[in-house]
Amino acid sequence: MFYPGFSAEDKVRIYSVFGGIPYYNRLIDDKKSVKDNIIDLIASSGARLENEVSGYLNAEISKIINANEVFEALARGYSRYSDILSQSHVSSGPTLIDVLDKLIKMEVVEKTTPINDSNNKKKVGYYVSDNLSLFYYRYVFKYLSQLKIMDPEVFYVKYIEKDFDEKYVPHQFEEICKQYLIRQNRAGRIEPVIEKIGKYYYDNPKEHTNGEFDIVTEDEKGYVFYEVKFRKLPVSKSMIEEEIAQVDKSGLECYKYVFFSKSGFENVDIEKLEKIEINALYE
């Protein structure tokens, strides 16, 4: 099991940066804090993995500046083709398609569609699937000049700490929970077996609402909605009821609702609800 010396929370934090790559895992010191591992390995001048991302991109892609531009847009959360094109300032559509195709073949970017609208090209999304690349382009690449002249602790606090704790890790926790569901499904521990998993697109003209739910599964009984919470306080009944009401309002009909929580749950007893705490992911 990855990182045996860390708590379940810190396993999520460290995995969200280094993923499951064996080489990176061998460099992680579980006697140090998550912050110190990040500083020592990727977020300081001369860090062990400082040139890891740019190194393998240079080896695979001739026009590296285009890859850098695309990665920066993806790392900032732009996932639609048109948004990536406008935010990355890549010279043309065909050039962007070429870069995205190469990154997909390298398995550092993935192309996804909603499970309920898989043939709609307008709903295609592109996401960085390699954790170290995502971290590097979100926090390190655009501040390389500052990294070379600043104290690593000061750099971490100024450019990484707040966003990492409040946005980056909670988002990565969603992917970790999704991978947990896939592992459980492959092992035959989910009944009925999941046949589709991914985002779900909704468009409800009556309520004037549209958008995506990040994790929804489909099986022979119908849809299951998943909500992932990486927060300091336990998940409350009112919070769960609010999320379920939002799902119902969207028009998505689910036969079950599953909530993952870092900090557990208050005393909640709601029909069709399943609760999963963070420690279950590492049992």
UniProtKB/TrEMBL annotation:
Coiled coil: none
Transmembrane segments: none
Entry-linked SUPFAM superfamilies: Restriction endonuclease-like
One Pfam family hit: DUF234
Domain DUF234: 136-234
Identification of the protein by name: DUF234 domain-containing protein
The organism of origin for this protein: Treponema peruense
Record lineage: Bacteria, Pseudomonadati, Spirochaetota, Spirochaetia, Spirochaetales
